[in-house]
Specification:
The chain is an alpha/beta fold. Helices cover 47% and strands 11% of the residues. It has two domains: 201 residues, Rossmann fold; 111 residues, N-(1-d-carboxylethyl)-l-norvaline Dehydrogenase, domain 2 (Orthogonal Bundle). An eight-stranded mixed β-sheet has the order 3-2-1-4-5-6-7-8. Helix 1 crosses helix 8 and helix 9 crosses helix 11. The structure holds nicotinamide-adenine-dinucleotide. Belongs to the 3-hydroxyacyl-CoA dehydrogenase family. Keywords: NAD, Oxidoreductase.
């Protein structure tokens, strides 16, 4: 077994070109971080508008790097590796063409919505376009690689590399395979995580939500349920958590950072799966609440910057209540 894995490792090309599939909240960050770390990156989405938004996000990340790079975990690296945000911007290409994005890629990071049917369809397209050696990774928050292994057409080269948001500060890379993932491919993705300045976290057996979201999702579900069931206001839920735990953020702020649509997708899917359990019922109620918020134009802070964003979410931006001096009393 070990010998097979090593033999395969020697026939696996080094990762040079990375394709990032989906240019939303996470795809924007993963593509920038990979380019900053020296990889050539192609970013794929379905419309030019989405790609333009992603390009603007990349330019903002490059400015942030200059303004506060020293304080950001994934950017605070030894001087000799001198990361250049301007060089990173040059290394990213933007496309709506799946062949152009994947044709010469060695590794791809899938960042499309947390909806199983969407991911399944995307994998078939990607498999047709990508070379056979290309490693497929998913950044799914809560779904299992084994659920999509067949759809990728290359189960042994498919696994999860999951990031936290924002990946620059919360720089972990949770690496999780499924029963047929090649051991050498797993190790190659652990190394890739290191190469893009993430701290690799090995998930030893398949788990919906890895470590990070196994903790985060029930917390968000309980917190939002207090709001949707009328127990307390979003501000008071956050204040209670922040004051009692000494935490920098409350759960409603975290929902705005993740984006309401992604949180809604997680609750809608797992609410259906767990509909007979108390937690599942809460998830379905929370998903319906978030649907109404989304319909009212509250998507959360897509820029990741609460001081400059003009969005609405669980809070109104700019100048959200939690940034005011009297928020914690
Ligand atoms: N938001 C977070 O905090 C977070 C954190 C970690 C992981 N994730 C996971 O990352 C994935 C993406 O989440 P997100 O929050 O970035 O979502 P998002 O809605 O912000 O972005 C998804 C993007 O995928 C694009 N897309 C849809 N179909 C596509 C296709 N066929 N080809 C190319 N692009 C396509 C959409 O146009 C959109 O731009 C999900 O699986 C989510 O669970 C999210």
């Amino acid at each position: 077994m070990r010998r097979t894995a090593l033999r395969r490792l020697t026939t696996t090309p080094r990762v040079r070109k990375v394709a990032v599939i989906g240019a939303g909240t996470l795809g924007q960050q993963v593509s920038f971080q990979a380019a900053l770390s020296g990889f050539d990156v192609a970013l794929l989405d379905t419309t030019e508008k989405r790609l333009t938004t992603a390009k603007q996000a990349h330019e903002r990340f490059a400015r942030l790097f200059v303004e506060r790079g020293e304080k950001v975990r994934a950017w605070r690296v030894p001087a000799e590796s001198s990361l250049s945000p301007q060089a990173a911007l040059q290394r990213i290409s933007y496309t709506t063409d799946v062949d152009e994005a994947c044709g010469d890629s060695d590794l791809l990071s899938e960042n499309v919505p947390e909806v199983p049917a969407v991911k399944t369809t995307v994998y078939a397209e990607l498999h047709a376009a990508a070379p056979s050696h290309c490693i497929f990774t998913t950044n799914s928050s809560t779904l299992l690689p084994s659920d999509f292994a067949a759809a990728t057409g290359r189960p042994e080269r498919f696994l999860a590399l999951h990031f936290a948001n924002p990946i620059f500060d919360g720089n972990i890379g949770e690496v999780m395979g499924h029963a047929s993932t090649d051991e050498a491919v797993f190790e190659q993705v652990v190394q890739f995580a290191r190469d893009i300045h993430m701290v690799p976290i090995r998930i030893e057996k398949e788990q919906n939500g890895y470590i990070c979201n196994s903790l985060l999702v029930p917390w968000l579900n309980s917190a939002l349920w207090l709001v949707t069931s009328g127990v307390a206001s979003p501000h008071d839920v956050d204040r209670t958590w922040m004051i009692t735990m000494g935490a920098p953020k409350g759960p409603m702020q975290v929902i705005d950072v993740i984006g309401l649509e992604t949180v809604r997708n997680v609750f809608a899917h797992w609410g259906e799966v767990m509909r007979d359990d108390a937690a599942g019922k809460q998830m379905l109620a929370n998903a319906a609440f978030l649907d109404a918020k989304l319909e009212a134009g509250c998507a959360g802070i897509k820029t990741g910057d609460p001081s400059s964003d003009t969005a609405k979410g669980m809070y109104d931006y700019p100048g959200p209540a939690f940034m005011k001096d009297d928020f914690l009393g």
